[in-house]
Amino acid sequence: MKKFIETLKNIWKTEELRNRILLTLGLILVYRIGSFIVLPGIDQNIMAAQNTGSNAGGITGLLDLFAGGAFSKASIMALGIMPYISASIIMQLLGMAVPVVQKMQKDGESGRRKINGYTRVLTIIICAFQGPAYLGMYVGNAIIDNSFMWWTMAMLVLIAGTMFAMWLGERITDKGVGNGISILITVGILARFPSAIAEEFVTSDSAVFIQLLKLIGFFAIIMVTVLIVQGVRRLPVNYAKRVAGGGATEQSARSYIPLKVNASGVMPIIFAQAIMSVPMMMSYQTNSSFLNGLRDLWSWPYNLVFAILIMVFTYFYTAITVNPKQIADDLKRNGGFIPGVKPGTDTANRIDDIVSRITLPGSIFLALIAIIPAFAHLAGIGDNFALFMGGTSILIMVGVVLDTLQQIETYLMNQHYDGLMEGGKIRGRRGMNEMSI
């Protein structure tokens, strides 16, 4: 406890870190206030009755979880940040198939600005399609003035709410601490956590032993998730002897390339969930039994498709994040080599082979964690708390919290302070003798 208090004092002493954390908290507060501002022309009594009778395990419960309650309140932030996530997915997929987008990705900062501009335009287009579906299928009965002017106003407000949330996320990334978009999603999830805990453990009449088993299972899932998210395969690297000044020879140094078991982080989960929201919304407009199955979070069609998407996106995002050829070139340029492997192409192939092998168990784990809520539901755990017994919520929370803690720790270490954890180092982050990838 003494070390924790000392760490908080060190954070406060570091002016840049203190300002970044305060700015991040301020922007999060603005985002949360926005989620409580209801669209004009909505009957809140009807919305409250509708939410009381809705199934927390369906599309409403999940989308409301990501929006921090804004979805069920018909808030100006009801669409949340997911349209921007969907637009980002589309742009990244285009980057693999469209030469023009590939060229922009290689143009450095100027290309990044162009891609961000197209992503924003695509976000508006996606909002223009999702907005009417949301208002018509979910809010419909609560609309007081169902006129053309109201629909125009409501659509503009919903689009503006999503764009404002996107802007807040970008400001957190640039001026605050952590990845802004991921933090906003995490904040929305955490906003529902206290009520889920109260519903499952305070108002429940389950036996004490059963409640204890639930808590043990919950913490066990968190610990295993942290283990996999932070897991690293250290690939040994040797550096050739170098001739120092005066003809003296320096001994060869040994280092490691840290290849993470889950190099893609939480992005496969976020991407898969964004893709799943499309057929879930379409299910309200069709009688397809398969699409209707995707609307139920506890059904096997939803969990099967969701698990497959997570595995696919894990490989996809890992391929974007980890570039074996670039790592091999950097090693060769610095006089480094993997013992028993020739520099250049052979080194790149070795790294690619190792990344492919460790990504497979990582992707399977992510998929299994994602479908745990369905098994928790079958075991009799309440729908709201079941969403936190694994699935998207626990993966995003653990991943984002760890990433944010690592960034804070980096600031502290740069100021010669101890880190947040014992020994000043969060397990899984790059050590002093590890090569950056």
TrEMBL record:
GO biological process, one term: intracellular protein transmembrane transport
A Gene Ontology cellular-component term: plasma membrane
Kinase as UniProt keyword: no
Main location: membrane
Keyword Protein transport (UniProt): yes
PROSITE patterns documented for this protein: SECY_1 (PS00755), SECY_2 (PS00756)
Protein family according to the UniProt entry: Belongs to the SecY/SEC61-alpha family.
NCBIfam families: 3a0501s007
Protein purpose: The central subunit of the protein translocation channel SecYEG. Consists of two halves formed by TMs 1-5 and 6-10. These two domains form a lateral gate at the front which open onto the bilayer between TMs 2 and 7, and are clamped together by SecE at the back. The channel is closed by both a pore ring composed of hydrophobic SecY resides and a short helix (helix 2A) on the extracellular side of the membrane which forms a plug. The plug probably moves laterally to allow the channel to open. The ring and the pore may move independently.
Subunit organization: Component of the Sec protein translocase complex. Heterotrimer consisting of SecY, SecE and SecG subunits. The heterotrimers can form oligomers, although 1 heterotrimer is thought to be able to translocate proteins. Interacts with the ribosome. Interacts with SecDF, and other proteins may be involved. Interacts with SecA.
Name recorded for this polypeptide: Protein translocase subunit SecY
Species whose genome carries this gene: Putridiphycobacter roseus
